[in-house]
Amino acid sequence: MTTRYDIAVPCVSLAQPATGAAVRAIRRSIRAFAEANGAYGARLAAIELAVSEAVANVVVHAYPDEPGEVLVLADVEDGELELVVMDDGEGFRPEPAPGLGLGLGLMQQSATAFEVRDRPLGGVEVWLRFALER
């Protein structure tokens, strides 16, 4: 006898060209997803800020020579919103990057869990978790 469990996990997947317009569009979509799944107030603002910073980092840093794409995955598991923002760009480079350098710190400070990692086939992945209100 085989038992099958169908568990519906709320999720969204967004792929956009890595442009300034993508920052706004993805922020709006993630805000709506987070709100629909229990984020509000300061937590919702923190989620919006983190996703904006992560996507903006892709726009500014990932593709210096040619246009690329940003992919954002979000799901809700065990009362937490998980966000993954990734690109196929050049990854971390040793030379100083443009900007103030505050984005990663802001993301880390606002999330309950945070990690940045190089992707095996190129690019960077930012992983964030946020506790949702019940």
H/E topology pattern: EHHEEHEE
The number of helices is 3
Backbone shape? globular
CATH topology: Heat Shock Protein 90
Q: What is the mean predicted local confidence, pLDDT?
A: 86
Strand content: 25-35%
CATH architecture: 2-Layer Sandwich
* β-strand number: 5
How many independent structural domains? 1
**Briefly, what CATH class?**
Alpha Beta
Portion in helices? 25-40%
Notes on the structure:
It is a single chain. With 134 residues, this protein is of the alpha+beta class. The protein has one domain (12-131): Histidine kinase-like ATPase, C-terminal domain (Heat Shock Protein 90, 2-Layer Sandwich), CATH 3.30.565.10. The chain is 35% helix and 28% strand. Strands 1-2-3-5-4 form a 5-stranded antiparallel β-sheet, with helices on one face. Helix 1 runs antiparallel to helix 2 (41-62) and helix 2 runs antiparallel to helix 3. 28% of the residues are buried.
Layout: helices, strands, pairs:
Elements: E1 11-17, H1 20-36, H2 41-62, E2 69-77, E3 80-87, H3 103-110, E4 113-118, E5 124-131
Antiparallel strand pairs: 1-2, 2-3, 3-5, 4-5
Helix pairs in contact: 1-2, 2-3
Q: What distinguishing features does this structure have?
A:
134 residues, alpha+beta, 3 helices, globular, five-stranded antiparallel β-sheet, Heat Shock Protein 90
